[in-house]
């Protein structure tokens, strides 16, 4: 009888330990699953933050590139026609226009830079003809177009910033 009690006690203790082991395994699995979910959520959040930051940086870069492109086109137009009596001013459709004259064998041609309907446009035509803004090519979006000339330095101001060109013709270089 004593042996029977001992056997019953051993079985009871063993089955109790088995239940505790099963409960511990279940808690361990739940902890690992919860830990995996937290890590996955953290990685997803990091991906979303990274994507948002990349998009913001890319938008700034794109805007900066467009600004530099517009101002560079204006500066390069001025540089390409810089010569004696090549840079002048005229009344454009919406204010003053910067007129760059080329003296060629078959006549004089003008590159006109001026503001028109919220953009800076460039028009290439024979000298002395009327302004035709509908044929002009848009360089950069800007409601402001102004320029100053001081000591051989022509500075053009737009909404995107300013660009300066040292005229070679003033120094007798062109």
Short description:
This protein has one helix at residues 2-81, and strands at 87-92, 95-104, 107-116, 119-126, 137-141, 145-150, 153-158, 161-166. It is of the alpha+beta class.
Give a description of the structure:
- The longest helix has 80 residues, at 2-81.
- The mean pLDDT is 82.
- The chain starts with a helix and ends in an 8-residue tail after the last strand.
- It is built from one helix and eight strands.
- The radius of gyration is 38 Å and the shape is rod-shaped.
- The strands form two sheets. It has a five-stranded antiparallel sheet with strand order 1-2-3-4-5, with helices on one face. The chain has a three-stranded antiparallel sheet with strand order 6-7-8, covered by helices on one side.
- With 174 residues, the protein is α+β, with helices and mostly antiparallel strands.
- A hairpin with a 2-residue loop joins strand 7 (153-158) and strand 8.
